[in-house]
Amino acid sequence: xxxxxxxxxxxxxxxxxxxxxxxxxxxxxxxxxxxxxxxxxxxxxxxxxx
Length: 50
Hints:
The structure is a single chain. By secondary structure, this protein is an all-beta fold. Helices cover 0% and strands 62% of the residues. It has no helices and 4 strands. It starts with a strand and ends in a 5-residue tail after the last strand.
């Protein structure tokens, strides 16, 4: 599941991506061609047992 959580300037956004064992935040930029390019990704590990 992917959820856009910020699109203030329409040139960049952060997406929250839920995985089975961790969540990820991706920083993406739109270069004007309508395609979002991922420049950086951060992993948020879940505690054991969740």
